[in-house]
Amino acid sequence: VCSVTGFYPGDIEVRWFLNGQEETAGVVSTGLVSNGDWTYQILVMLEMTPKCGDVYTCQVEHSSLQKPVI
């Protein structure tokens, strides 16, 4: 689960990576949820069976960030 909260504006990109390669299959999102104070939150899940040695990474891109956060 990748949880991102307290961001504004609502435009955000959340991506999952497996061993450095972007994963699109099995990605499920709550969509944007308003916090009621002009900020937002989102949960993005990667549904898969983990394997020993695999590295899973969540990357967040938002206009308030100078570079993506992992």
Automatic annotation (TrEMBL):
Pfam families: C1-set (PF07654)
UniProt cross-references to PROSITE patterns, sorted A to Z: IG_LIKE, IG_MHC
Residue ranges occupied by any Ig-like domain in the UniProt entry: 1-70
Name listed for the protein in its UniProt record: MHC class II antigen
PANTHER family from the UniProt entry: HLA CLASS II HISTOCOMPATIBILITY ANTIGEN, DRB1 BETA CHAIN (PTHR19944:SF99), MHC CLASS II-RELATED (PTHR19944)
Organism: Notamacropus eugenii
